[in-house]
Fold this protein.
Amino acid sequence: MVASVFLEAEALAEYPFLQDWTDARFAEIHDTVAEHLRAAYGPPLPADRAAFLRFDDGERSVTWQVGERLLVLQEWMVIGDGDVEMEIWLAAIDA
């Protein structure tokens, strides 16, 4: 796991800016890691060949073929009862 956050509904109600701030920071982390991976492994696979590690309320994934493996960078989010959980994963899986 590259990054993870859990925002409680009570905190979001009191400090609503936390969601926007967290979304922006996670986008920065995802984009920075993706830039480094592009520099090392070239362009990712087309979007229709992207692999996903988890599915829920929201996710985006970028995938590279590296030898016999897929290198997957995924941002994942789940929203439940006002709570928000976000994670960024980087994994190598069999192609």
Notes: The beta strands are 3-7, 58-66, 69-80, 83-94. The first strand starts at residue 3 and ends at 7.
